[in-house]
Design goal:
The protein is an alpha+beta fold. It has a single domain, classed as Roll (Nuclear Transport Factor 2, Chain: A), CATH 3.10.450. Helix content is 33%, strand content 40%. The protein is built from 4 helices and 6 strands; from the N terminus they run αααββαββββ.
Amino acid sequence: MAARIRALAATFLALCIAIAVHQPLQGSPDQEQALRELENRWLNAEYDPSALESILADDFVHVLPSGFVTKVEQLSYMRAHPFPQPGVAKRFDDLRVRVYGSTGIVNGIVVATMPDGKVRKTVFTDVFAYRNGKWEAVNAQELPLNDSAGK
């Protein structure tokens, strides 16, 4: 009888731990802030494949007008074609962060001011998954924003 009670107690404890480990995150200001910080890291390291290695998930997909690009393809291309952008100032405009359990969605506009003063805007959607204790980008899509959009 004692062995059966210990077995039931061990099973109950294992079940409680499994539920706690798989409990999805709730959308909280802390999680939203973590995604904002990650987006800023990504913006500042946009052309640094070594820095992007830890931001992009292994199953990351970048949706571009030319098609779908994987993490491996994107980082390989960046390493083969370094793209320094001296003098380009970048910032976010209208950054929106939403968290649904272990999924985060960030929408916004990147405003890039070129050395010649021209401004380029790109509207984007990034999707993140919370895995192994950290947020990882699993999908990104961006489009150039023309001057008349958003006015």
